[in-house]
Amino acid sequence: MTVKVLAHTVPGVVGLQSVTVTESFDAALSQATIEAYTTTLSLGDPITFALGFAGDTGTVFTGFVRNIIQNLPSATVQIVLEDVLSKAVDFFIASDDPQDPFRRFNIKTSDLVKDILGLASITSFFVDLPFVVTWATGSVPIEFNLVSASDAARQIMDVPAFRLFADRSGVVNLINRRPFVEPGDVASFTWTSTTDDLISISYETSTDNLRNRVVVYGTPGVQATAEAFSPFLPAGFTKSAVIATPIITDNTIAQIAADRNLEGLNRLTEGLNVVIEGDHTVRPNLFANVTDAFTGVSGLWFIFRVEHRFSNTGGYTQAVTLTR
Amino acid sequence: MPVFAGDFVQIKIEGVDRTAFVVDYRRMSSICELTDSFEIFLSPNYPVTIDPFDTIEITEDYDGDSGIVLRGFITTIVQDFEGSNIQIRGSDKSVLLEQFFLSEQIESQGQSVDFHIKDIVERTGLTVNFISSSPETIVEEGTLLGLTSASDTILMLERLAAYFIKYNSQADELQVFRLDSAEPVVTIDEPVSAVRSRGTDKTRNVVKIYGGFKFNPSEPLLKKSVVQLFAEVRSEVKGLLVDKTTVISNPHLNRQSFLFIVANRLLNVLNSIDDVHEYLTVGFYPDVVVGNSAYIRVTNFIKYEADRLITTIESTVTSVGVTTKFIIGEKCPRITVQLPVPPIFATSKQDGVAVSWDGGDNFQPSNLGLTTTSELFGKNVAVNSYGQGMVITEAGIFRRFRSQASWLAIDPLPDPINESADPIPVTASGLTNLRIADEHTNRNVFHLLATGFLQSGILLPSGFARAWVYSTDDFGLSWRSTQLYVPASGTTVLETVSGIPGRVYNVLAHDLTAGVDNKVFAMVSEVGAFITGVPEEEKEEPLEIYYAAGFSASVVGGSVGLYDGNTVTPKLNTSTFKDALRVMEIFSIPSNRNIAYAVTVTRDNNAGFTAVEHFVNVWRTKDGGNTWTKIIDEVSWYSGNFSGPSGNDIADSVPVIHFDETSTTTQFNAVVMSSTHDGSIPSVSFKAFFIRANSIAETVTTSIQTLSTGAFSVGPGSTIGPIFSSLNLNQRTAHSQYRPPLAFFGSHSLDDSVSNDDITPLSFSICRANLLDQSLSIRTYSDELGGMQVDTSTIRDMTTHSAAGGAIFWSYGTIRLDDDDIARVFRIFMANGSEILEENHASTLDAWFPQGIPYSIGTGGATGIGTIGPIANPRPTELIRSTGAIVRNTFTLIDILTTLALGKVQSGLSSRVWVLGSDFKFSFWSDGYINITEFFDFETNSRQPESFAFKTFA
Question: Quick one: DSSP state of residue A310?
Fold first, then answer.
């Protein structure tokens, strides 16, 4: 048996007890919690650190200190961290004149999102979108007021089912990624129960989130519908989802929203929860080939959520949620 | 029935003691919630059926302390077969407010909040006791109440008056109260467990208010544009990643001043990091309720000592014991534009410290612990938002934890740091403590301005001054000092005295104050220099000082500038001035304090007295003072010749700079005004230099207007005397949004222009500048002096109170009539921005009437100024005194105040202070310090309920 020695680069703490990092496809931001004896960190301090084993560590988090909690009698301190998108969560768009809110015409998705997140002093972006969605091409502007920059940006990205997240180096990514396997996706990892890759595994499936009809309502006169057959529902039966938002001001975007969201919703909800030995390279948006005889699963899975569990008592493991 | 020993808690259900059946018990009370709640597990052999709304009475007992902690009702019963227990939950009697639906709509007729609270509470069958009351706080006429639960309506009303409303089960009544400054009632020093959580979830550093709508009166009736009132205030909070904004929209906020009041008060509560503590202690504290203070002293790990408000109490009995959890520091603010006014603290020469709880109407001694004559010689006082206070007295510095507590002497200060490398440095025994300032929302943090003088014969001349700011972050247990410097022309801030050949520092300390955002500003000078300082929030870093250097009148080429204490480059250096400054002012835009304008007027003195050419210079910063751009460069404005200082041919007055306090980022207005009198011509000439700038478009326009009184002010055969002084009639515009911003400048003289009867009147000429249309107009008034010959006259000052649609100007002075000094008050009323409805209104007044403070004008009392009439007791705008003259309170005749300085009001509101003037004191504008909103209706000379109710110290 190979003995691995835990290694980390967590700064500003003495007597590190544990680190938990949570990254999820559907979360507004990534979070981390550090438990230690003492710290020199202060609220708002920037922080980045790596986890792993001696000789094999990698950056798993970049963000800021958001809470510091001292506990007695354990005499420990908990430090709660959030990634750069916490700036967008904190920043509340409130114009000086309600009649003159944040307003844009004829603007691409990436530019619009960058403008909004720019209000929250977020300036580092990576953009890789497969097609252009242009907003407010007519006389009706797209407007935001009395909403957080995070919510505004996500409203925009959710319409064409794009993905917004901050990566481990603090760069905000605007990409096309949906939580299921699409053509061209390949596995970055292979986990099988026969080789002890999997410490535990569970599998679940349901039709709870299945929708085979999506209706989109935008500004007055703007709407679209997409519908498809589902082999998992009774013949002729439809389950509908409705997207209603005033930020959709033309039918083109409405139809994109209907079609793209139908692709994501018209499928069984399948989830795998596995626990593996810690591997800092495992992160959401990648794929893994998972094979397990007991649950009967096999094939390519999307890594939806990763929770790093790093402690001086439990070692380094990861709880990974996968979907397809 | 007595509480049985060991039971700790006694439960009566429907009047029957059921304590024996209690398995687990939990009670929770929170200042942020209307109702207290409980959860009890009863054993399965409970003998009778429990029904909803069965009454319950809970008594807690521990270590000899016993009290009823909850009277209320059971609202939920859960019987769980698996647990074999009966769980009951419920609330105190205030749950009736939640359960009672007000089925009719109630329209306020302008009654008080108290009236409506009492009315609604009585509808539910409860009784209410007003521990605090505010009968002048009204619900605006026409406001609709009802068609909702009584609790929702009560919640709205309690916020309107900044009340807290809780059910006091001990007294069996609903109680209305405000959080006050009470002594701690419990000590927490050995908790079973403790959690201290710091974060920014509920922290906000920006508050924006959308208010009601106003019409623009300058537009034709049918084209009036509607503008929604808006206010924004901001501060800086260390630890925030970006601005965190909270927004309030309320159409009932229908005056600009109200918006700023609400915004500032809310900011005052929210602009600190969240610092919530949870302490689990053994036992019960039945006499302690939320809203009480606890003295906390945790010496290990958390290391925290302070008294803090208890916001939540959670008491439990389980199989492991009896515990009470105290939570402190939760934020649930009560903000109102209306009363209450925060306390004002003052010091006096003979009566120590005084406090006013009614906005200055009445002061009462607050001296517990101060007994000797020297201890009662107060110099300055500061009180933070936690009630912690420090006072400087002749006997030293004292502190107290609460306004009801005793003053405790603070150990002598340590010797100050000797950064100036003086061979024989000033020691602590040679210090004079001048000012004390608190950081408003930072507990335990105070700053002290101290000065000392060098001894003779040691390189530097004797009597040269040094100045320090002492800071403490443990409420006076320890201090560190920071030496203050004045930068020399062309030199750097950080150079020491010995490092500047030929230049001797003589650092005079003047004033120290702090804004609501905890920025502390010190003011020092050589001849005229100013410093503002910004301590860090956590107090772990050295005091960071920003310098604004003034000028040296005795040195040609003296400079003015803003300096950063950590760099060597002046932020704003005006060393290119022709000569020393005559006047200089600085103003920041209320909606964005990072944008500021500095206006200076210089005079070329190189040519001696034969040239009096003036130059106007304007600088602008858009980044909080880091960089400055000169947007008007030495525009020659005023020039002329006169024969010399003793001549009487031409005498120009010292210019005065007025700012439009309603300036925005897109329209900044200012005007420089002055007057000239040619002794050979019976006329006064006024001149105005208008400045208009747009900090967004970066445009600047100027206009020079001149207007003369002509000869009409002096009648045939009369002579005009010298212009004794020019009067700065700076109108405050903060509360007159329906009127264009106006500035006033005046002069007065002796003449006989009115009746030509050889009885010398005193003549006023007042020039009014409209900053919007950049026009001038002049009014002249004369006052017959009743057949007595005037020898001399000195008009000392003039001040302004504005009201909706009008403004009133007060002046006073001492006139020598034959051999008698007679003090007189003059009142000029202006309404609608253009018409003067009353001419000067003279009356005698007490010679002790304080300079610059229209404070003692009253209808009675010993001051002898009752002839003013119905204008009663305008509030003080400031009470900073240098002469020690007595300020009397004519309402109470309690002559306790030989006031030297006022302490900060507890809801200090200024977010950033910019001061650059020739007076060695801080002054504040509409969003700072003790600046009174309208209190009387000057148009009718009567109290107006709405204006009375809305008095505040904004």
Answer: E
Query: Which strands make up the sheet holding B432-438, listed edge to edge?
Result: B432-438, B446-453, B465-472, B480-484
Q: Is B319 on the interface with A (CB under 8 A)?
A: no
* Alpha-carbon separation of residue B668 from B595, B693, B696, B775, B911 (angstroms): 10, 5, 11, 16, 19
3-class DSSP assignment, residue B256: helix
Alpha-carbon distance A209 to B191, whole Å? 48
Among A21-30, A75-84, B935-944, the minimum mean pLDDT is found in: B935-944
Residues of chain B positioned with their CB less than 8 A from the CB of A70:
194-197, 301-302
Structure tokens at B921: 């004191």
Contact across the interface for B244 and A92, Cβ inside 8 Å: yes
Q: How confident is the model at residue B772 (pLDDT cuts 50, 70, 90)?
A: confident
Q: Are B242 and A73 an interchain contact pair (Cβ–Cβ within 8 Å)? A: no
Give the count of alpha carbons within 13 A of A312, CB side only.
Answer: 7
Estimate to the nearest angstrom the gap between the alpha carbon of B781 and the chain centroid: 36
User: Does the structure's ipTM exceed the value 0.95?
Assistant: no
B666 interface with A at CB cutoff 8 Å: no
The interface residues of chain B toward chain A in range 247-276, judged by CB-CB distance below 8 A, are: 247, 249, 273
Q: Global pTM?
A: 0.60
Strand locations in B460-543, DSSP E? 465-472, 480-484, 508-514, 520-525, 528-534
B200 contacts in A (CB within 8 Å)? 43-44, 66, 90
Assess A72–B contact: CB distance below 8 Å, yes or no: yes
Higher-confidence residue of B482 and A21: namely A21
Which of B6-10, B206-210, B715-719, B923-927 tops mean pLDDT? B206-210
Helix (H) or strand (E) holding B269: helix B256-270
**Confidence tier at B885 by pLDDT (50, 70, 90):** very low
Query: Alpha-carbon dihedral of residues B382, B386, B387, B390, nearest 10 degrees?
Result: -40
The radius of gyration computed from the CA coordinates of chain A, to the nearest angstrom, equals 22
Within its chain, how far is the Cα of B90 from the centroid? 43
pLDDT in tens, B664-707: 788 899 988 877 765 555 567 788 899 999 988 889 999 988 88
Segment A299-318, tens digit of pLDDT? 999 999 999 999 999 999 99
Quick one: which of B452, B372, B381 has its CA closest to B413? B452
Phi then psi dihedrals of residue B854, to 5 deg:
-75, 60
- The pLDDT of residue B867 is 22
**Residue A147 touches chain B, beta carbons under 8 Å:** no
Task: Return the C-alpha torsion angle B601, B606, B608, B611, nearest 10.
Answer: -50
- Here the tokens at position B230 are 């808006």
Tell me if chain B has a CB within 8 Å of the CB of A266.
no
**pLDDT top residue among B886 and B249:** B249
* Contact assessment for residue B510 and residue B495, using Cβ atoms and an 8 Å cutoff: no
Q: What pLDDT, on a 0 to 100 scale, did the predictor assign at position B747?
A: 63
A96 touches chain B (CB under 8 A): yes
Nearest CA in chain B to A42: B239
What is the rounded CA–CA span in Å between residue B929 and residue B904?
7
Beta bridge pairs of residue B621: B596
pLDDT tens for B397-449 read 999 987 667 899 999 999 998 876 777 788 999 999 988 888 766 778 898 98
Which candidate from B239, B243, B538 shows the least CB-CB separation from A91? B243
State the Cα–Cα distance between residues B183 and B399, nearest whole angstrom.
14
Distance (Å, rounded) from C-alpha B553 to C-alpha B492? 19
For B107-130, write each residue's pLDDT tens digit: 888 788 899 999 999 999 999 999
Q: B199 vs A64: CB contact, 8 Å cut-off?
A: no
